[in-house]
Design goal:
Nuclear Transport Factor 2, Chain: A, single chain, 152 residues
């Protein structure tokens, strides 16, 4: 009887990042739970919590748009630190308008049954990312959008 090997969380995560880099949403959908929460920090127009796979894919589209299609991610390390919690370090590059971003990021992934149920991204020099992507806007009741009050 032949032994079967089950794909590890680190192997699945590597395949997911390869699918992301290739723009392969069909394969990527295998790795992201329909009820996931994708948490994007910072003070920019993409900041927020994206609930569900569709909202997460919408965020990915906004990311590509905000960076004029230049966003790239090169995985440096993938480590499962405790069961179903994976830490990914990566090198991110992007440019838009007259700005460039060329830094390392860390993503903390929480998995259930091999699918991401939560992701939190930590960026190095977040102010540079915020400047590249564009300032956040807030909308007050009965008013139009206003620029964020934070410095940048």
């Amino acid at each position: 009887m032949a032994a079967t090997t089950q794909e590890t969380n680190t192997q699945r995560t590597a395949r997911a990042y390869a699918a992301f880099s290739a723009g392969d949403l069909n394969t990527l959908s295998e790795f992201i739970s329909p009820d996931c929460v994708w948490i994007v920090g910072g003070d920019n127009r993409l900041t927020g919590n994206y609930h569900g796979r569709d909202a997460t894919f919408d965020y990915f589209g906004k990311l590509v748009e905000a960076t004029a299609g230049t966003f790239t991610l090169s995985v440096l390390t993938i480590n499962e630190v405790v069961p179903d919690t994976v830490i990914v370090t990566a090198h991110a590059q992007a440019s838009a308008r007259d700005r460039k971003y060329d830094e390392e990021i860390v993503q903390q992934l929480h998995l259930r049954n091999g699918q991401v149920i939560a992701c939190r991204t930590f960026v190095e020099n977040g102010h540079l990312w915020d400047a590249l992507v564009g300032r956040a806007q807030i909308t007050l009741p009965a008013q139009g959008p206003r620029e964020s009050v934070s410095s940048g």
